[in-house]
Amino acid sequence: MTATRTNLPGCPPGMHQTAGRSWPMGASVDVGGVNFAVFSAGAHLIELCLFSDDGRKEVARLLFTERDGDVWHMRVEGMMPGQRYGFRAHGPYQPEDGHRFNPHKLLMDPYARAYDGRLRWSDALMGYRIGSARGDLSYDTRDSAFAVPKSVVVEDQADWGKDVAPRHSWSETVIYEAHVKGLTARNPRVQAGARGKYAAIAAPAMIEHYQKLGVTAIELLPVQTFFDDRFLVARGLTNYWGYNTMGFFAPEPRYAGRSALAEFRDMVRRLHMAGIEVILDVVYNHTGEGDEFGPTLSFRGLDNRSYYRLAGGGRHYANDSGTGNSLNIGHPMVLRMVMDSLRYWVECCHVDGFRFDLATSLGREDHGFDARSGFFDALRQDPVLAHVKLIAEPWDIGPGGYQLGAYPHPFAEWNDRFRDGMRRFWRGDAGMMPDLAKRLLGSAESFDHDGRAATASINFVTAHDGFTLQDLVSFTVKRNLANGEDNRDGHSENFSDNLGVEGQTSDAKILAARLLRKRNLLAALMLSQGVPMMLAGDELGHGQGGNNNAYAQDNETSWIDWVRADPSLIGFVGRLTRLRTAHPVLRQRHFLHGKTRMQDQLPDVIWRRADGQVPEPDQWHDPAFRCLGIELRLSAERNAGADVIFAVFNLGPEQSLTLPDTAAAWRLILDTTRPDGPEMPARSGLTLPANSILVFTPDPVGGPK
């Protein structure tokens, strides 16, 4: 099925259409005009639709008459930046074969640098007729232009001045995962008009906070243009987290005032001045168009068969993301779009890295996940992306979706085994001592291959998805009723512990136990090999009332309460990061396997019991074995440096501790039961508190043994 063109005027007065060129994609401003290039392999013809300045009235349609391969192009002489526009694509409407062209639906430019207006949910957005007995095989002729955000021509130039990327090594990196709005919306030290926006992320009070914590990189939840799902809007909710991308080149405007692009760039510039990197959480595994019953907004209407991985002969969509569709990264033009997007954010917005949501989808070929897939090959050879940080969320819900440790260098990966192992150990689960040892040493069983470094493991105890640290020690079951899904959403196994009372309490003993548990989890995170990532708000005591899937909670459930912040925990995190910075032994690139160092004939790692002895093999699985010491030195492979740390993780009762006799003398530098306690000389036979972590270093003034 096809549709005939609707006749509207051609070029407005003062404009003139010429052939243009097929590169670059999207709308690009040059001297005296604007060039347009858009991809579609299946369309019969494409129109450029021009709109009034307020975006409400379509004033002209220009037919693309030039095509190089599958890229349609034109140049409009006399057009100026700020022009609102969209596309209409004519072609077959044959859903059974994967074609869903419908020129009655205005389409957003996938390469637009900005969009004007918000999506207005209407049945007119659908390419099919809602309520028809034929379902998505039916055809809808209503014009959707009134409901679709308009693409905007942007003169994409920026004066970066002397902006210099911090380029912290992975060994130096401490990541702070945050939501633009949630982090700052309730911070009274941020100017009221800026709260919840890009400007607030780099406000002086926020930079002071990051520096106090010792974080070196902020990882922002999705900020590429996204929409609120229709089912959420119907419930009075929004897609707060933003994992519903529709514009891979444009910053989300809801976090800005007048110009999202300019304000985003200014945020990056100011964070760089403070020595802080910016990592973006990006969603290239799916789009916000959903499955065959979703709206026609851009990709579906331009070339459904090319942009999406299809199933069922072409009518249905592969759904490895769990959101209705999966982008077809295997198609060269879709891969090009993703690569162009990544380069754009690095070259034109100066971001320092990316965290790839559901990254297994990006590496899935016809035969399954492949570490040598086209996407990984393209990414790894790209000179623009050679110096940025790349982080994979190493799973999706598709076949063979869990791929922890399978990503190629230079990827780092979110390590959920660290998260679950640390939670279970401190909860007191039996038999967790071997797992604790693996996590402390960077999960070598997953990452020590093909020349990968220990920094390939992104260690975390909490993230946006799941319990906050406060809720982790306050609830045993999730409480997600506010999401409107009868508490069926979110993880059911959180390895959490309320320490005596579910939810809030005024019991002083329980509150003290919860605070100690949080300090132990944070200390274990910072003392482990790998790259630590903490969730924004954990250092403030932020809780979400037990909601472990607050993706739709754009309210005080998710907005961090700065007024009730716990200053002692903020200071403790800062102490941990300073300790980590001061001791290279805690942040090594080489994996530690107990090899003997040439310089002192000592192993680079020695495990010890509380009595100072090395555990016997059978003791590792003894449920009564609840106190583990680790003596760390710089890797035998590095064969240089004298830095030494002895850390003790005691899940058991108070007991006597015997210190190793391999140092001249020891100095206690951290005790999680006394977070503000001073450093002090230590001797064997000291009392090890229950449920604690103690850290020692050789005492330079302690004298001989």
Overview of this structure, please?
The chain has 705 residues and is of the alpha+beta class. The chain folds into three domains: 16-152, Immunoglobulin-like (Sandwich); 171-585, Glycosidases (TIM Barrel, Alpha-Beta Barrel); 589-698, Sandwich (Immunoglobulin-like), CATH 2.60.40.1180. Helix content is 19%, strand content 21%. The strands form nine sheets. It has an eight-stranded parallel beta barrel with strand order 13-14-17-20-23-24-25-26. Helix 13 (508-526) packs parallel to helix 14 (567-582). The model has no long low-confidence stretch (mean pLDDT 96).
What is the CATH topology classification name of the largest domain?
A: TIM Barrel
The level-1 CATH class of the largest domain: Alpha Beta
**How many strands?**
34
What's the number of structural domains?
3
Q: What average pLDDT do the residues reach?
A: 96
What level of helicity do the residues show?
A: 10-25%
> What CATH architecture of the largest domain do you see?
Alpha-Beta Barrel
Oligomer: single chain
Unreliable segments of 5+ consecutive residues: none
Taken as a percent bin, the fraction of beta residues is 15-25%
Helices and strands in order:
Blueprint: E1 16-18, E2 26-30, E3 33-39, E4 45-51, E5 58-63, E6 66-68, E7 71-77, E8 84-90, E9 93-94, E10 99-100, E11 115-116, E12 150-152, E13 175-178, H1 180-184, H2 198-201, H3 204-213, E14 217-220, E15 224-226, H4 230-234, E16 245-251, H5 260-273, E17 277-282, H6 299-307, E18 310-311, E19 316-317, H7 332-347, E20 353-356, E21 364-365, E22 368-369, H8 374-381, E23 389-392, E24 412-415, H9 416-427, H10 433-440, H11 444-447, E25 457-460, H12 469-472, H13 508-526, E26 531-535, H14 567-582, E27 605-608, E28 627-633, E29 644-650, E30 655-657, E31 666-671, E32 680-682, E33 686-688, E34 692-698
Parallel strand pairs: 13-14, 13-26, 14-17, 17-20, 20-23, 23-24, 24-25, 25-26
Antiparallel strand pairs: 1-7, 2-3, 3-7, 4-5, 4-8, 6-7, 8-12, 9-10, 11-12, 15-16, 18-19, 21-22, 27-28, 28-29, 29-34, 30-33, 31-32, 31-34
Helix pairs in contact: 9-10, 13-14
